[in-house]
Amino acid sequence: MASTTNQKQTHKTKDLDVQIVGAMKEVMWKGELGGKINLNDISDTVGLYGIGPLSYLKGELLINNGKSYVATVTSDTTMQVKQTYAASAPFFVYTHMNEWNEVSLPKKIKNDKDIEAFLIRETANLKRPFAFKLIGKVSSAKIHIQNLPEGSKVSSPEEAHRGQTNYRLQNEEVEIIGFFSTQHQGIFTHHDSFIHMHFITKDETKMGHLDQMQIENMKLYLPKN
Question: Is 129 a residue whose pLDDT tops 80?
Fold first, then answer.
């Protein structure tokens, strides 16, 4: 993995501070695929949460309460999920969070779009951007892992998603780490969304960027002010 600098980086945050390195639009439109942050240079992993793509769009990254995972494609139907901090990202969003508030979700919350609408409606009192997590069971989900062909040049979102592999899952116990903002479209969320979520199954064998889900039962956790 390419180093981003000759000097060791130090990235520190306190609870409720969200750190952003790089930008999705710089990757999609300018082809800046190389690492702008080395995960093993984040100095404090206690209560650490973060998401982003692997450098050169070769996989997906998730840090869930200090445990760092790298997911890569092995076939159209299989993947490898490895626990390691030896990875870098062209853009990455992360924070430290040691205290959460559990929020009861209304029964009408059935999918990812409902989650986004709920967060828009119910979190006006929270400092933004913020991290959130969801724990529970999905009846179905669609996730993807970036798998850009070696040597590819990128100058558009369409080119950036070449090789992307989609996976459909059913009846899985999962944890989802997400970041919410109404001000960071094109930075760490897509232009048509205020949330970016990565998903890992309870057995830690499947992980990726969450595109769609149908919720069977789920608990929402928001930062404690």
Answer: yes
pLDDT digits (tens, 9 = 90+) for 75-92: 999 999 999 999 999 999
Dihedral sign of CA atoms 149, 150, 151, 153 in order:
positive
Q: Going by C-beta distance under 8 Å and a sequence separation of 6 or more, which residues neighbour residue 101?
A: 221, 222, 223, 224
Q: What's the pTM?
A: 0.90
Q: Count CB atoms within 10 A of the CB of residue 185.
A: 15
Residues 82 and 171: beta-carbon distance below 8 Å: no
Residue with tokens 């989650």: 115
The confidence score (pLDDT) of residue 189 equals 86
